[in-house]
């Protein structure tokens, strides 16, 4: 059993689930997001949205192709979803974006812009033919020009995954903090503090409640002056 399940009490801290209602919880299939930063569709549909009480019922809903992630039908109840993924249930005419809450846990935000998704560039590599491959936070890749840099974000149309807007990471960028004690906070980058050691760079953010510092890796560019997507957070 443990191969496809994990102890509920040991589930990642970002999963918005109760810890003592049962012993086991579905373990996500290895995929785009890490287990720490994503959760299986079963939890989303049963525990958060309450579409059914039993795992068997959720599996049937998925088997019938009634749930889309980023515009594509997903039938695996263990399929992992994470930050900025869009879950759509056509029969209910509802779409949700996976976001991070102020409590540091993943949450769903009801949206009307299900045809768009933000991706952060976490790496880029040169591939055969002199082309540049962008590697995104959700595990997907794309060939593009060398105009893009790591830590930049791109706005994609889904399911086509075509870049519709480039959001550079620099002083003045509008960002969301996606981890740490300021998780879920929006603000503008005021200063990028480069640390000349093995320690992580830090960033000074101007939020609605004043300035604070956070680790650079916790930053996700979501706009230039304001969010380009519905995020469920007031700027």
TrEMBL record:
Q: Name one GO cellular component term.
A: cytosolic small ribosomal subunit
For this entry, list what GO says about its biological process: translation
Q: Which GO terms describe its molecular function?
A: rRNA binding; structural constituent of ribosome
Which SUPFAM superfamilies does the record associate with it?
Alpha-L RNA-binding motif
What are the residue boundaries of the Small ribosomal subunit protein eS4 central region domain, all occurrences included?
Answer: 94-163
The record places domain KOW at: 171-206
Q: Which CDD domains match?
A: KOW_RPS4, S4
Query: According to its UniProt record, what is one Pfam family this protein matches?
Result: KOW
Under the heading PROSITE patterns, the entry gives:
RIBOSOMAL_S4E, S4
Keywords, ordered alphabetically: Ribonucleoprotein, Ribosomal protein, RNA-binding, rRNA-binding
Domain Small ribosomal subunit protein eS4 N-terminal positions = 4-35
Report domain RNA-binding S4 positions.
39-87
HAMAP family linked: Ribosomal_eS4
Q: What is this protein called?
A: Small ribosomal subunit protein eS4
What species does this protein belong to?
Methanooceanicella nereidis
